[in-house]
Each structure stands twice: as C-alpha cells, then as structure tokens.
Amino acid sequence: MSGGASLGVRSSGSYGSLPQQQQLGGCQSSPSPSPPLAARKPAKMSLGGAGAGAGGPRVFARICKLAGRRQRMLLLLLVAVAVAFCFLFSSLVSKDEDASPGVETMLVFSDHVRSFVNPGWTSSGRPVAQRGSLTVNGLNTASHMEKQSDSKQQVQELMQSFPPAVMDHHPCENFSLSPPPIDRKRTGPRPCPVCYLPVEQALALRPAKPSLSPVLQSLNYMFEENLIPKESKSGSLFGGFPSLEEREKSYDIKDSMTVHCGFIRGKTPGLSTGFDIDEADRSEMQLCQSTVVASAIFGNYDVMQQPENISKFSKDTVCFFMFLDEETEAAIKNSTTIGHTKRIGLWRVVVVRNLPFTDARRNGKVPKLLLHRLFPNVRYSIWIDGKLKLVRDPYQVLERFLWRKNVSFAISRHYRRFDVFEEAEANKAGGKYDNTSIDYQIEFYKREGLTHYSSAKLPITSDVPEGCVIIREHVPITNLFTCLWFNEVDRFTSRDQLSFSTVRDKIRSRVNWTADMFLDCERRDFVVQSYHRELLEQRQATLRSWPPQRPPIVRVHPRKMLPDNAAKEPWRASATKKLSGKRTRDKRSSSRRTHRTNMKEAIQL
C-alpha cells in the first residue's frame, strides 16, 4: 500500500492534505539491519567419537564405527542438509522480526479507519456481535441502548481524531463532462463518463460532521394503535390516514416536529406494525452504523442482481440489505440455497411478512423512502431498485454525488421528461396506473399551484426524477422530505415521479434546502439496468418459439479425377481426352445412321 491512493501512515493521527497524504502514503521507513546471529557452540564430539561425553554421543559414535563407508557418507549428507535448513529458517525469522514498522502502522491505521466508518468493526475482520435480550418494545433494552451509545461515542471520538482532508485542488475539478460516444446501434439513453476518486481518497474526504439541517433539528414519528379514517382518500392504515389538515401542518417546518411516516401502529418499525421483520433481522439492521446499500424485490418482480467492483474495505464496512416477500423467497429457493447466514452473495436477505399493501410496487416504496426508519443508526444510504446492478464502490458514489457537492440528497432526473404533466400523460399511455387516479392527483396539485416546468424554475433543472436510485444522508430535513413523499404516495398513486416536485417545492419555499438532481447518463454509469422478470421471461419465450434456424446447405460438386499416371505422363492424359471425345462423336453418328436405317425400313413396309 503505497502512493497517494493508499490508506498509508498519516502524521499526528489526521488525514492531512492530499499532497501530504501522497507523500506519507508512499514513504516507507528503511528496514533496520538484522542483528548478528549468535555464535554456535563448538561440538562436543566428532563423528569419529573423539571427545565424546554422555552416553548418547557414545552410541552415535559406535553407530558410525559399525556402519560402512557409504552409510557414513549418507549420514554426513543428512546432517549437512539439516544444518542448512536450520540456518535458513533462523535468518527468515530474524528478517520478519526486524521488518519495517510501516507495515504494522498501516494495518493498525486501516483497522482504525474501519472502526471510524463502522464502530462494530474489529481487527479480526468480523463485526462485533452485540446482542441483548428483547423486551416488549423490541430491541430497545438497556444493554442494547448502552452498546449503541458506546458506539456513537466512539464515532464522535474518531471524528475528532480524523478531521477531513484539506485539498487545494480536487483531482476531478478539471474534468469536463462529455456527451456519450456516438453509437448508431444505440439511440436510447446511455451512460456518460464520470470522474470518481479511489476509495481511499474518497474516504479521506468524508465529512467529519453531519450536514446541516435547516430549521428542523428533531423529527419524531406518530404512532397509534386504534385508527379510524377521518376522510376518504386519506391513505392507508399503515400510513395512519393523515387528514388534509395534518398534511398541511406537516409542511410548517419548525425546530421540532412530529409527523406521519408509516409504521403507525408501533414504536419499533417492523414489530407488529405491518411490514413485519424477524427479531434477528431487526437486530442486524440495528447494528448497521455507517452506510447501507438497500434494495427490494416484491411479487417476484425482478431478478436479484449482485453488486460488482466493490472494494474489500466496502465489503467489510458497508451493509448490503435486500428485502423480499415470501413469494420472492420461495422462487429464489428453487434455484438458490439461503443458509443460516441469510446471505446471497453480498446481499443480506430480509424476508418481510404482513405486507401493508396488495400492490407489490407500493410495498417497495416502504424501504425505498423510509430507510431512515428501518436503519435508525445509519448515516448514509444508497437505494437502488431491484432491477439494477451496482457497478461502482459505494464510497465512490457518495463522494461523487454528496460530499463533492456538499448536498444531503441526490437523485437523477428523467432522461427525457422534465414536466409533471408530460410524465402523467406518459404514465397513462403506458398503463402504469389507473388513469382516473392519475387525473385526480394532477388536478389536486393544480389547485395547489402546480405549473408546467420552465426556465423560470432555474436552478432547478427538472420536476421529474428517475427515482430508481436515491443517494442521501440521514439528517432531519432529508428524513422529513422522504416521510412527506411517502405520505403523498400513500394518499395518491404509487407513481412517485408525480409527487416528487410538489413535496420538494413545498419544503423549499419554507427552508433553504432542495434535492440535488444529477444527469441520468451519470446514473447509468454506476448502475446497470436489467429487464423485469416478466418482460425477461416473455423475451425468452419468444426466442424459444422461433423455429430453429437450419444451417445453409453447401453443395459440393465432385471433381473429375485424373488417372494416377496423369501427372507422370501428361501426353497420355491429353491423348486419352482426345480419344474419348472422338469415341463420343462416333457413338453419336452411329446412332444417327441407325435411326435413318430404321426409318427406311418402316417406309418400305
């Protein structure tokens, strides 16, 4: 581990500037000279037995005396090999003891950073098992809360010990975004080049403190067991049936707020609240302290995609969670074995029961928009839809789209549409949802002041997101945004692209915060999109229904073989050819004469 892209030695326990990091990372202390080997004691006996002392050497001398000359030579050879092996082994041990201390320091620093990123990390490479007895309220026991407070205190101490790196110039500041390369075969949306930092440098730029949350500092969530809907079209039991008056109050942002945010029937999300999760899974989710990459497949709608190009450091410190329903779990078990670790590749599988909705896509909005409720101790999250495959390291994605821009919420904009009204028409044309429900939602937003997108909204670049990827930091203002976004999805249609701009603009009109929107081609650089399972199976069935293509028939005309002696006697071959031609003409003329004779005889008769 040398060079600027390594987690090398840093002076005074801080990251320092990038030039210092490069200098210290590539610096290795020279190894100290090995101590001289201890002088060997002179042997007490020779092979001939002279100077023998104890009984053991006398027996050895007698054996040498009785053995023949050849046997003694073999014995000497074995002794020499043993001595050489012992000398070589002692020299290797001495080199290992006197190795450069830089390697040890780098290993200790690497574990230190692992502890900084994930307090549950130990030098053994495995998370610390933090288990406590469960009470009626789930995981909030005294021992568990004590361990969580210790972890938070450890994170704060490590943040003070490792301030963020100070860089005069960012390595990607001169990078210019170029359009995707021209490809006549691909006319649709494509990825474009994106400048990422190495994982080690990206970690060095991780902010030491959470991002500021304007105005809102404390966010709490409503819970109530006995609920009665107060008005029609007010959402679901899982969401708590918020009234229009409560909806309007939720946008009155104050220092401390309590809002509807799903899981209304209990204090512990996943414990008899709808969207129920087993104790072991909830405990594992509680232990996730730093960053989580999450996805979900409900209704066996997609094929599970394994992340690629993930660094060893991220595999050790980032949580990868995949939420499934029982239908999807049964389908996966037909082809894959889910062991006691509940892992499939990098994904930690969580089976959800007692789903709150009958629509699989609407169930998927729960982990998509409410990750801060499922993972209360996580600081950063990356959500990807089940049809997507992550092909970049999570820390590189966080540095590129959050830390570099100093934002707390990032989502890609739609590659073609920027206007909510156009998106609504496209959803109706594509049969994405009931047309009457889409029209009702758009008319409701129009009465609240929704207008067509225009340049007057700049610097906002779009009203329509491509919501399959969400990158965010879990701070009160972003948690409020996703709570209110989920409430809109619960009240109206499940097409979250239609309600995104309404929630964003309402919050933006009250506090200095907005969601950052990056290009869709940049999103396509770090995730690869696959087909939904139904469409994929249809394509495969269509290919199987086609008749198999027959290979083209190649007709080979046989060549006329010459006699064996044609090569040796060419004159004979030419003469044979002439003779055969003459015989053919004679045969034809003879047949004509025979035909004339037969005609004359027929006339005479």
Automatic annotation (TrEMBL):
<dbReference type="InterPro" id="IPR048354">
    <property type="entry name" value="TOD1_MUCI70_glycTrfase_dom"/>
</dbReference>
<feature type="compositionally biased region" description="Low complexity">
    <location>
        <begin position="11"/>
        <end position="31"/>
    </location>
</feature>
<keyword id="KW-0812">Transmembrane</keyword>
<keyword id="KW-0472">Membrane</keyword>
<feature type="compositionally biased region" description="Basic residues">
    <location>
        <begin position="579"/>
        <end position="597"/>
    </location>
</feature>
<keyword id="KW-1133">Transmembrane helix</keyword>
<feature type="region of interest" description="Disordered">
    <location>
        <begin position="1"/>
        <end position="55"/>
    </location>
</feature>
<feature type="region of interest" description="Disordered">
    <location>
        <begin position="548"/>
        <end position="605"/>
    </location>
</feature>
<protein>
    <recommendedName>
        <fullName>TOD1/MUCI70 glycosyltransferase-like domain-containing protein</fullName>
    </recommendedName>
</protein>
<feature type="domain" description="TOD1/MUCI70 glycosyltransferase-like">
    <location>
        <begin position="219"/>
        <end position="532"/>
    </location>
</feature>
<dbReference type="Pfam" id="PF04765">
    <property type="entry name" value="TOD1_MUCI70"/>
</dbReference>
<feature type="transmembrane region" description="Helical">
    <location>
        <begin position="73"/>
        <end position="93"/>
    </location>
</feature>
<dbReference type="InterPro" id="IPR006852">
    <property type="entry name" value="TOD1_MUCI70"/>
</dbReference>
